[in-house]
From TrEMBL:
It catalyses: (S)-2,3,4,5-tetrahydrodipicolinate + NADP(+) + H2O = (2S,4S)-4-hydroxy-2,3,4,5-tetrahydrodipicolinate + NADPH + H(+); (S)-2,3,4,5-tetrahydrodipicolinate + NAD(+) + H2O = (2S,4S)-4-hydroxy-2,3,4,5-tetrahydrodipicolinate + NADH + H(+). Homotetramer. The lineage of its organism: Bacteria, Pseudomonadati, Pseudomonadota, Alphaproteobacteria, Acetobacterales. This is 4-hydroxy-tetrahydrodipicolinate reductase. The keyword Chloroplast does not apply. The active site is at H142, K146. Pathway: Amino-acid biosynthesis; L-lysine biosynthesis via DAP pathway; (S)-tetrahydrodipicolinate from L-aspartate: step 4/4. Catalyzes the conversion of 4-hydroxy-tetrahydrodipicolinate (HTPA) to tetrahydrodipicolinate. GO terms for biological process: diaminopimelate biosynthetic process; lysine biosynthetic process via diaminopimelate. It comes from Acidocella aromatica. The gene is dapB.
């Protein structure tokens, strides 16, 4: 059976790549867009519910403001959901978790295999390196159009380190130092954010001690790496029972 993949936000920069990858790997059912049209030959639907009814799985890289609406619509139509949107809050997270009681959802800030391997290593290093000896810092840079900071991937790296250390990121995060901040506290996880040009995505995790430094860095050179990962995840998700999954589940990490 050919799986029909729908793309929310099909006319956007990521939406176009997703549509191309979906058409190559499965069947593109069409998409939604604010502009009212998508790539040539791709059916356009008026809203997420109409798209879901004609799709076996929907891939969604739209905006945090759409998460609750899309969660309700996809749960109502029992359509599996690949969610790559970032920058949402607790209310949106609850909507995702509620929808996952009815449908399978894979939610990830990054669908690149390399980044997800970095997350695994980040957790292991966080566990192995004592926080009073090794200071953890995360540096990320993206294109000038990106609206959320730190990036969802940077936050995911921070959460992985925090999980390895047995703490919550919210209790130890320090983002955007400015002015007279005083000395660095043991156990902090620091974030630095850069924006400029058309950088697709660059993330570095550094553990720095008095006598050594360990660094992990990932650079994305082409947005298609995220699209191809999301489509592969969609093909896998279609066969899964209801629940909330991560890329770690798909990659069997």
């Amino acid at each position: 059976m050919t799986i029909r993949i729908g793309i929310a936000g099909i006319s956007g920069r990521m939406g176009i790549y997703l549509a191309e990858e979906a058409a190559a790997a499965a069947s593109l059912s069409g998409g939604t867009s604010r502009s009212g049209h998508g790539p040539e030959g791709a059916p356009h639907f008026s809203d997420i519910t109409a798209l879901a009814r004609e799709s076996d799985v929907v891939i969604d890289f739209t905006h945090a403001s759409t998460v609750r609406e899309h969660a309700a619509a996809l749960a109502a139509t029992e359509t599996p959901w690949v969610l790559g949107t970032t920058g949402y809050g607790e209310a949106e997270q609850k909507a995702i978790e509620d929808a996952a009681k009815t449908i399978p959802i894979i939610a990830s800030p990054n669908f690149c295999t390399g980044v997800n391997l970095l997350l695994l290593l980040a957790e292991k290093l966080g566990h192995a390196l004592p926080p009073h000896q090794y200071d953890a810092e995360i540096l990320e840079m993206h294109h000038r159009q990106k609206v959320d900071a730190p990036s969802g991937t940077a936050l995911a790296i921070g959460r992985a380190v925090a999980q390895g250390r047995g703490v919550k990121l919210e209790d130890v995060i320090v983002s955007g130092r400015d002015g007279h901040t005083g000395p660095r506290k043991d156990g902090e996880i620091g974030f630095a954010t850069l924006r400029g040009g058309q950088i697709i995505g660059s993330h570095s995790l550094l553990f720095t001690a008095g006598d050594e430094q360990i660094s992990l860095t990932h650079h994305a050179f082409d947005r298609r790496v995220f699209a191809s990962g999301a489509v592969r995840a969609a093909l896998w998700l279609h066969a899964q029972p209801a629940g909330l999954y991560a890329m770690r589940d798909f990659l069997r990490l």
